[in-house]
Amino acid sequence: MTDPRDRQYTNGEITVFWIPSKCIHATTCFRELIEVFNPGRRPWVNMEEAPTRRIIEVVNKCPTQALVWKYNKDLTEEERKALREVDHRLEENPKTLSGTNAPTSIRIMKDGPIFVEGNFKIIGAENQELKPTIMTSFCRCGSSRNMPYCDGTHRKIDFTDQSTENGE
Amino acid sequence: MELTEKLISQTNPLKMENEKALFQVITGGPLKVTGPFQITGSDGEIIEKEEPVYLCRCGKSSNKPFCNGAHKRIGFSE
Ligand code: SF4
Ligand code: FES
Ligand code: FES
Q1: Count of CB contacts below 8 A, A vs B?
Q2: How does pLDDT run across A88-103, given as a tens digit for each residue?
Q3: Is residue A112 part of a domain?
Q4: Which of A140, A141, A154, A165 would you mutate first to test chain B, the one with the most B CBs within 10 A?
Q5: What ipTM, to 2 d.p.?
Q6: Please, are residues A140 and A108 in contact by the beta-carbon 8 Å criterion?
Q7: What CATH number has the domain bearing residue A35?
Q8: Which residues are CB-neighbours of B55 under 8 A, at least 6 positions away?
Q9: pLDDT at residue B48 tops 50
Q10: Cβ–Cβ under 8 Å, residues B46 and B38
Q11: Helix or strand or coil: residue A153?
């Protein structure tokens, strides 16, 4: 593995690789299959919670190849070794640990959502408190079916940061 | 909870927890942000802005990522 933050998870049959540097937090994986991809848990990928077929289906939907998979029989020697040495503590996002006073980071993703990390609070449209996760992304394109969060629809509608005058 | 106390916590949740950033989803409108935060724009630049900021959710602002009132014109709803 090249990046020490990269992770791999297995159910004995297939191995799923997670490459955080490629993850744009489109949240597709956990909108689709929260049983397996749950950012609120450690480890955040739990391979026992769904059939292999279903996991493959969702991994294939990751828009950036931050998630990829392989049959275990196809693993390289290096990947096998890494599987034995996983240390899930490193998965913790330090900005999310409570007690930090770092300001909350708000990242405007190009042609995509608002991605938020840190210690923060969300009040929904009905004045109810919503639960933040380590990957909270708010929809910016106006078309998500899971408001106020991004569900990936921005890609389908080709949302862009360019201001179009045909909004008139 | 006392009614007055409840009203205060509902109308101004910052009174209770002032070290956390707060995101308020405004029905049919933007996302209001207060508290300690840092905004990075889509080109990676840090955007200096006094709180509160209103981030466009409707997709139609011509001043993205901020709201410019366009949501009203287009009748944005969730
Ligand atoms: S689906 Fe989205 S959140 Fe999940 S790994 Fe891929 S980019 Fe990251
Ligand atoms: S920004 Fe992703 S669905 Fe709207
Ligand atoms: S939410 Fe106000 S302009 Fe988009």
Answers
A1: 114
A2: 544 544 344 344 467 8
A3: no
A4: A140
A5: 0.76
A6: yes
A7: 3.30.70
A8: A106, A108, A114, A138, A140, B30, B31, B33, B65, B66, B67
A9: yes
A10: yes
A11: helix
